[in-house]
């Protein structure tokens, strides 16, 4: 038998329950893993009633599945943005960790050669 984990409930559409309250119980158990079954069933109804109708709708099966279909698109966008962002001075942390957007070229501009320090003869 497969152990149901939090990521399985969200990532696998077959594990999303048709009733929103059951999805809420899974969410609550994920947020409070130390709660036993008895305590979970004692505290869940009050927390469920405290939620607004809009928040309760987030636990409906249709809403969860729609969020699942949107997620891969958002991941692609994030990956594309991460490729465009360069870290300035990766090996030299003394200058800070500022992120710089790479200018959009078909190819990267040629790297500038570093200037060599002039050595002074101390005599």
From TrEMBL:
Residues 70-91, 99-123 have a biased composition (Basic residues). Residues 70-123 are annotated as: Disordered. This is Uncharacterized protein.
